[in-house]
Structures are given as structure tokens and as C-alpha cells.
Amino acid sequence: MTDYELEQSMEIEALEAILMEDFKEIHPSESGLNTSNRCFQINISPQEDDIDESTTTPVQLALIFSHTEKYPDEPPLLSTKSLRGIPNEDLRTLKEKLQQEAAENLGMAMVYTLVTSAKEWLSERFGQKDSTEDLEEEAAKDEIVVPHGEPVTVDTFLAWRERFEAELALERAKLMPESALSATKEKRLTGRQWFESGRAKGAAAVAEESDEEDEEDIDFDDDDFEDDEEDMLEHYLAEKSDSSSHSSRRMN
Predict the structure, then answer these.
(1) What does the pLDDT look like over 179-234, one tens digit per residue?
(2) Rounded to an integer, what distance in angstroms lies between the CA atom of residue 203 and that of residue 35?
(3) Are 93 and 61 in contact (CB under 8 A)?
(4) Quick one: how many helices (H) and strands (E) in the chain?
């Protein structure tokens, strides 16, 4: 004759030793089971290899059971409760799965087997979802093309600044009057000093006026030169005629 109470007591001791703080006895009124017998709650999380430490709200459930009078020849009373992040529909699916496995394991202590099955189900149900999301995020990151220009280092910056200052000094020198360039070293202004003194603006204005005057210069064409030559010839003949008149008058 089977001693059910002894087998049930031994199983509870084994579960306490294996599960430790995840295993506790609760009052029958808290179990949600229709029984006055002793009730126990086991907190279950996904398998440790599938836990994502960066997740702020990992899933967790509670498996609540109570031994029947003829357990393990009868299945235990079972209930599932979400402790974190598990929808009620998933809880119902898991409960049906565990009840089916309990029926398949009659005749032996089965609670730890049901705990292991619940862990695997959590990992498959939620761990696969997380990994799929991670893969989608990684694929999206791969599609983003980040443009990379020439990296700026101290050497490249100094080289650029040297070229920039040289070009700036050259432009300033073009605007400076020759007197400033030929002045003695003691009196000569630096490009920066000359530019800040306001003379650069005057020089620029003079340069613009000079350009405008150059544009307004008269263009000579061939007709102009022909007119000048005719005028010179007429003037020469007139002078020669005057000279001849004066000579004839003197002779008379």
C-alpha cells in the first residue's frame, strides 16, 4: 500500500532544498485553488542563459500547487499567476500544458518536472521574442549608413590653420599700399594692425574707383586716328600758307 503522505512530504523537502527562496508555503485562501490542504508557490523565471540583464521588467510567474489525497497517482491541483509581464492568455496556455504533462507523469513525484517545463516555456515564449526584436534592431542599424569625413586631428588642424593664415596674409598684402610695404621695420604695420586700423577699407575703395576709371577709359578706334591725322595735315598746310604769305609781303 502506497504511503501518499510520506511521498508528498519527501517531495516538499526536496523542493525546498533545490528551489530555496523561490519556494514557499502560502495560505489556501491565497492560492486560488479549491482546497483546504497545504498550498505552495514556486516563483519561476526564464532560464538563466536566456535572461537579458538590460531588460528592466523581466517576465516572471508563480506556479501554485497543492497535493491531492492520492498524489502522485493523481495529478496535483495547479494554478498559474503572473508576477511580471505575462498576459492572462499566456497563463491559460501554460496551465493547460502543465496539466497535460501532469497526466503523463502519474505515479511519480512530478512537481519539479513541471517547474522545469514552465522555465523552458518562458524562455521559448518570451526569450525568442526578445531575440527576434534584437535581430530586427541590429538589421535596422546595419541599414543606416553613417557618413564619415576626413577625421580631424591636431596635425591636420594645424596644417589647415597655417594655410588659412597664409592665404589671409596674402589677401591683406594685396590691399596694402606700397608705402606701407616699403616702410622701415620699426614703423611698418603688421597685416593685422593695418587691417584693423581701417585703412584697408580706404584702400579697397581706392581700388574700386581705379577699376571704375579703367572701365570708363575712352576706346580709340581707327576713325579717331584718321581724324587726328587729317587735322594735323590741315594745320601743317595752314601754317605753311601763312609763312608763304608773310614772305611775299616782305618781298613787296
Answers:
(1) 555 555 545 556 566 555 655 555 555 555 555 555 555 454 555 545 555 566 56
(2) 105
(3) no
(4) 10, 4
